[in-house]
Specification:
The protein has about 240 residues and is an alpha/beta fold. The protein has a single domain, classed as Carbamate kinase, CATH 3.40.1160.10. The protein contains 7 helices and 10 strands. Strands 4-3-5-2-1-6-8-9-7-10 form a 10-stranded mixed sheet, sandwiched between helices. Helix 1 crosses helix 2 and helix 4 runs parallel beside helix 6. The longest helix has 25 residues. The protein is globular.
Length: about 240
């Protein structure tokens, strides 16, 4: 494996990615391989922070929320992310890396409250830090939480781990001729109306020149490949020429 290209990264994992092929909850197999990849990345000397979603358990905007108001449904979704964060913590520690969970909503019995300086100190000591409960505010997605935390901890890149292997010019599941971008500028992503992430998260990254790497989580070893600078997925950043793979 090559020398790491980044010293500190923020990895955003969707809750859906933890389901595997099942329709709900956490796949132990997927959780194990994700934790192993995170642990092996940390052992390269890379400081790794993680934001995890909760869509495998709850979606505030889903039919399952019934007539619940949006704010209450979003708070339930935040609790779902904490469940995923604690589960990932356990799996990472079994994989041999010390881990801390910090939550935007205080839950003192199971996690630390989010404190920026403490999170950075954990990272400097080689601990993986997992952020739960999003931003602690309704109406914001965990994509936004990922962008916000990446900026707060001064990460060098935001790694978006998804169920697809990058950003395409159109939906690859519906169009056989869809083309994947290897590099993509923020301006071109906006001009072409490409859904890299939700609008608030994308604006945070664009306005603060936070580079984004979109890649497929299911492929074992991809996290290490990305942090070592290999051409995996799609890189989105300032001052780059947009190219297809």
């Amino acid at each position: 494996m090559a020398k790491p290209a980044y010293k500190r990264v923020l990895l955003k994992i969707s809750g859906e990615a933890l389901m595997g092929s099942q329709g709900y909850g956490i796949s132990p197999e997927v959780l194990g391989h994700v934790a192993t990849d995170i642990a092996e990345t940390a052992k390269l000397g890379v400081q790794v922070a993680v934001v995890v979603g909760g869509g495998n358990i709850w979606r505030g905007a889903s039919h399952g929320a019934g007539n619940m108001d949006r704010a209450s449904a979003d708070y339930v979704g935040m609790l779902a992310t904490v469940m995923n964060a604690v589960s990932l913590q356990s799996a990472c520690e079994k994989a041999g890396v010390t881990t801390r969970v910090q939550t935007a909503i205080p839950i003192a019995q199971i996690a630390e409250p989010y404190i920026r300086r403490r999170a950075i100190r954990h990272l400097e000591k080689g601990r993986v830090v997992i952020f739960g409960a999003g931003t602690g505010n309704p109406f914001f997605t965990t994509d936004t939480a990922g962008a916000l935390r990446a900026l707060e901890i001064e990460a060098e890149a935001l790694l978006m781990a998804k169920n697809v292997d990058g950003v395409y010019d159109k939906d690859p599941k519906k169009h056989a001729d869809a083309k994947r971008y290897s590099t993509l500028s923020f301006d071109d992503a906006i001009r072409r109306d490409l859904k890299v992430m939700d609008g608030a998260a994308f604006a945070l990254c664009r306005d603060n020149s936070m580079g984004i790497v979109v890649f497929e989580l299911a492929q074992r070893g991809n996290i290490q490949r990305v942090v070592c600078g290999e051409s995996v997925g799609t890189i989105v950043r300032d001052n780059v020429q947009t190219q297809t793979a």
